[in-house]
Design goal:
Blueprint (H helix, E strand, L loop, with lengths): L8 E5 L4 H12 L3 E6 L9 E5 L5 H7 L7 E4 L8 H19 L7 E5 L3 H4 L28 H16 L2 E7 L2 E2 L9 H15 L3 E2 L4 H5 L1 E2 L2 E2 H13 L6 E5 L5 E2 H12 L3 E2 L8 H5 L3 H11 L12 H8 L10 H5 L8 H14 L8
Parallel strand pairs: 1-2, 1-4, 2-3, 4-5, 5-6, 6-11, 7-10, 8-13
Antiparallel strand pairs: 9-12
Length: 363
């Protein structure tokens, strides 16, 4: 058995989340030594070294990382709070606590941070609102909005630690992430899968919940596998160091085109935009019992609808008053060429959810 390569030793912060778990599997497949830090790390993923810590408690983080000497740190964790002021305090602290705990070891060569398009569109409290909305496609050189934003606070913690400790950094800004993770707070793909499954069981149409701008306009999304590939590429590509990157699949689509295809996969009737925004939160309100019954009938692994569906975030994405596309020129010019069909992203996810008994089987 070969010895671990100290230059390919990763610490993934948030290893149980959507982006973190996908990156974990990629790095393990590439022969990296991988530590996974989370409140409840995955002990059953072959090859992963799980670490448990409360990221808001510096002593807990220091204890968990006392014997860890990573060459690369991937920061993929965040915690939603009631206000943006609280989001800033909590999420910047998590980044700071991790990097502070690693500082005495001096092992870190590169640190990557996952944020997202709220960098351009504003925080939850003012998302895609007001006079500051940028012209799309969104480009990395757009200035920060004059609004409080926890993504900015996280970036500033990363920049300060990199300057102090002498490591390189990268920032990765995905659009809506598509991939499998239970309990994820921003999970449009699994939300739609749970909703479509309920529509099929109850005979309801699969109703588009969003706005005319989203239904008719161009959009893109980010497969979690593409995000993982870009993070690995940036970590290993010197020309990509100390740079922020957008990351999306590489294709564009209209929900008016895609919605019927998603409905066909589940065998349900598609209902498009009819002139009224019909929030997903309303459609799923009171459906917890129906999901528990469905889970019992089919032996599903997760009977709690809210562990699968994040209706609030799906509404945030699909009710935006503007079409949203993302420019990837910066990473393309530096050699990142990975591409993913968005339709396949959804279908791959649905098949995975079905296989893992997270949604009922198609009849």
């Amino acid at each position: 058995m070969s010895s671990p390569d100290p230059a390919r030793t990763a610490l993934i912060v948030g290893s149980t989340g959507l982006s973190g778990s996908t990156l974990t599997r990629l790095l393990l497949s590439q022969g990296w030594t991988v530590y996974g830090l989370a409140r409840r790390a995955q002990p059953d993923l072959p090859g992963l070294i799980p670490l448990n810590a409360d990221l808001l408690q510096p002593e807990s983080v220091q204890t968990a990382l006392a014997g860890v000497r990573p060459s690369h740190v991937f920061l993929t964790s965040w915690a939603r709070q009631d206000t943006e002021e609280q989001n800033i305090a909590v999420n910047s602290a998590m980044v700071r606590h991790v990097l502070n705990a690693l500082r005495p070891h001096g092992s870190v060569r590169h640190a990557a941070l996952v944020t997202g398009l709220k960098h351009y569109l504003g925080p939850f409290e003012a998302y895609a609102q007001g006079a500051q909305l940028p012209v799309t496609p969104l480009r990395e050189d757009l200035p920060r909005l004059d609004l409080p934003n926890f993504y900015y606070a996280q970036e500033d913690e990363l920049y300060a630690a990199a300057a102090q400790d002498g490591f390189s950094w990268s920032v990765h800004r995905p659009h809506t992430l598509i991939g499998q993770a239970v309990g994820n707070a921003m999970n449009l793909g699994t939300t739609l899968a749970a909703y479509a499954s309920l529509c099929r069981e109850t005979g309801r149409p699969f109703q588009f919940p969003g706005s005319a701008a989203q239904w008719n306009g161009l959009s893109d999304v980010t497969d979690a596998r593409i995000l993982a590939q870009q993070m690995l590429w940036a970590a290993e590509t010197e020309a990509a160091h100390d740079t922020a990157f957008n990351v999306v699949n590489g294709d564009v689509f209209r929900w008016s085109w895609l919605w019927g295809r998603l409905a066909d996969w589940f065998g349900v009737e598609a209902a498009g935009f009819d002139g009224t925004v019909r929030p997903m939160q309303d459609s799923l309100a009171g459906m917890e019992g129906a999901w528990r019954d469905l889970a019992g009938r089919y032996g599903l692994a997760e009977p709690d609808l809210h562990r699968l569906a994040s209706a609030w975030h799906t509404d945030l994405d699909l009710s935006r008053p503007i079409e949203v596309m993302t420019d990837m020129t910066r990473s393309r010019q530096l050699g990142f060429s990975d591409y993913q069909s968005t339709e396949a992203s959804f279908f791959d996810l649905f098949a995975q959810l079905e296989q893992q008994r997270l949604i009922p089987p198609r009849r």
